[in-house]
Amino acid sequence: MTQTATLTHPAAGPGLSFGQAVRLVAEREIVTRVRSRAFQVSTGIMLAAVLAGVIISGLLGGRTSTTPVAVVGDAAGQVQHASGLDITRADSVAAATEMVENGTVKAAIVSDPSSPAKVRIIADEQAPDALVNSLSIQPAVTLLHPPAVPPGLRYIASYGFGIVFLMSAATFGGTIAQSVVEEKQTRIVEILISSVTSRTLLTGKILGNSLLAFAQVVLLGACAVIGLSTTGESSVLSALGAPMAWFVIFFVIGFVLLAAMFAAAASLVSRQEDVQSTVTPVTMLVMVPYFLVIFFNNNDVVLTVMSYVPFSAAVGMPLRIFLSQAAWWEPLLSLLVLIGGTAGVIMIAAKIYGNALLRTGAKVSVREALRSSGVE
Amino acid sequence: MLEITKINRSFGDRQVLTDVSFTVVGGRITGFVGRNGAGKTTTMRIILGVLAADSGEVRLDGALLTPADRRRFGYMPEERGLYPKMPVAEQLVYLARLHGLSRSAAQRNTTDLLAKLELSERAGDKVETLSLGNQQRAQIAAALVHDPQALILDEPFSGLDPLAVDVVLSVLRERAAAGVPVLFSSHQLDIVERLCDDLVIIADGTIRAEGSRDDLRDQYAGNTYQATFGGDAGWLRDQPGITVQEFDGPNAVFDAESPEAAQAVLTAAIARGPVLSFTPRRPRLAEIFKEVIQ
């Protein structure tokens, strides 16, 4: 081997700033993740799921299928106003019955003065519900408290916020945990923290993965918006617009909180095989808002509590805004609580992470990690 | 020159390092020898700032080490690893940039270094796909890619195949020749003996011996002599104050009770015929090591 005297060495002086170093670490996290097959596949699946959801709900909602019916004589006047019917005129009741028998039409409508609706439906085994409904006489209804949001939409929105949060947090939380343990297991972490501080490393990791998670959520959101507007569901869109914006804001901060917890939890172990044991409690914490929102989206008390607890605010508050339950100052207050909680958790997480990073072998307890940086 | 002064460190109730002091001179290779658990890794981590000392200081060329200085150190941890799923060159560029190099300088260094380590054609491959020998070369490159001003290597030879040992040896010699202080730990005493200029021996967290290899060997030479005579050396057994250890025709290794007794042997030998060699026997490192760690 010849001289390496041609190599360049870093200039003397302070070297990289905290920000520059964080950017480098974050950049590596992002590049590594984006390049991984697992990330590409899971993003593809999530996009496909959102698109499919939008399209299917569009199809179900705006269904304009028609029922072919045969109409005899003066019954025609009765059914003129009914929509969704593909009317074939028949000369007699017998001819109309024949058409029902051989399947040309789903049902025949004949006049019957004895029926309250003045018509009789002749069908094969079962009368089409839509047809029966459209020809029924319905009582007038007055609702004292009409719901702001149709119950179906309420469920879809709850489910949507809940699942996006759960999926992103679990996926990226898992990714951060893997990445922390990978560095510990391969011991490259010793080289890393001989050049940058553990704080820099942690910040870069959280930042990189949060940006990616954020980008993924924005991509999903954009997909939903485009889908909704092209399938003509713009009324849903205008109702969801503000809650979705709030969701993104809460998500970004709430995600940083969870990311810090995942990183700290993962730093307690030294091998990929052990990572589940410390990360599971955090994963549970991520799943709680999901199940709460699925089971209690009708319970205003639960939703209100959820909207202020840092772990679930990202799901609870946007949902309450969507349901028009939150006063204008409530999201702001909840945001402050979330930011405060996140700052606190980051401080604790940084301490655990820094102290546990060089301790290899058996799992380190949280209390030990908080107390000292003992290595052996 | 790297000066380590009165470093103390304990983990919980256990004192791991006690008043550890030694120097690593620029331009020389210093071997750091001790049994497992003697405190080698802890000392190195403290030098690198990865771990804090309870007390004591580390100076480089007279000034206390700063994080900026440490960023210009090259480090090879004992149980080494790189990102298994990251391409070799990309990984080296990343590490060089973390150490403060610009992207272009980092890329230049990486290319040069990989060429010198004969890894150029594997530059784009993931580390996990490399052979063990090539992974070890990549690890060496990771310690050198930012042209460090001091090298700290924890067991750089453990698990290396003979070819890789030669590569590491030549790298260390070359860096030392450029005036860089090089400290490496090892429990393989034969390699340390072959390579290092200076020695630091640690046991139970205290430095037991420190100095140039040759000085130490002289210092621990004791009263054993080695001689080759013109004829059979059997007469030595009857010489007063002499205990023969080994005896093979004209060659003999013997202990002398005193320098005078040894000189008497020489005088007697010359009277009997030619003396081809007569020298105090310098102990091997393994022998010194055994003696000082007790």
Structure notes:
The complex is a heterodimer of chains A (376) and B (294). Chain A has two domains: 18-55 and 149-371, no CATH class; 68-127, no CATH class. Chain A has helices spanning 18-35, 37-61, 75-79, 93-101, 129-135, 151-185, 188-195, 198-230, 234-266, 275-295, 300-306, 313-322, 329-356, 366-371, and strands at residues 67-72, 85-90, 107-111, 119-123. Chain A is built from 14 helices and four strands. In chain A, helix 6 runs parallel beside helix 9, helix 9 packs parallel to helix 13 (329-356) and helix 11 (300-306) packs across helix 12. Chain B contains ten helices and 14 strands. In chain B, strands 6-7-8-3-9-10 form a six-stranded mixed sheet, sandwiched between helices. The two termini of chain B are 30 Å apart. The mean pLDDT of chain B is 87.
Q: Any chance you could write out the topology, listing elements then pairs?
A:
The complex is a heterodimer of chains A (376) and B (294).
Chain A: H1 18-35, H2 37-61, E1 67-72, H3 75-79, E2 85-90, H4 93-101, E3 107-111, E4 119-123, H5 129-135, H6 151-185, H7 188-195, H8 198-230, H9 234-266, H10 275-295, H11 300-306, H12 313-322, H13 329-356, H14 366-371
Parallel strand pairs in A: 1-2, 1-3
Antiparallel strand pairs in A: 3-4
Chain B: E1 2-11, E2 14-24, E3 29-33, H1 40-48, E4 55-60, E5 63-64, H2 67-71, E6 73-76, H3 88-98, H4 103-116, H5 132-144, E7 150-154, H6 162-177, E8 182-186, H7 189-195, E9 198-203, E10 206-212, H8 213-219, E11 224-229, E12 242-248, E13 251-256, H9 259-272, E14 275-280, H10 285-293
Parallel strand pairs in B: 3-8, 3-9, 6-7, 7-8
Antiparallel strand pairs in B: 1-2, 1-4, 4-5, 9-10, 11-13, 11-14, 12-13
Sum this structure up briefly.
The complex is a heterodimer of chains A (376) and B (294). Chain A is mainly α and 376 residues long.
Written as H for each helix and E for each strand, in order along the chain, the element string of chain A is HHEHEHEEHHHHHHHHHH
Rg of chain A, alpha carbons: 30 Å
Structural class call of chain B reads alpha/beta
Strand content of chain B: 25-35%
Q: What's the number of helices of chain B?
A: 10
Write down the Rg of chain B.
Answer: 24 Å
What's the structural domain tally of chain A? 2
Average pLDDT of chain A, to the nearest integer? 81
Q: What overall form of chain B do the CA principal axes indicate? A: elongated
How many β-strand runs of chain B? 14
Average pLDDT figure of chain B: 87
Anisotropy-based shape of chain A: elongated
Compute the number of helices of chain A. 14
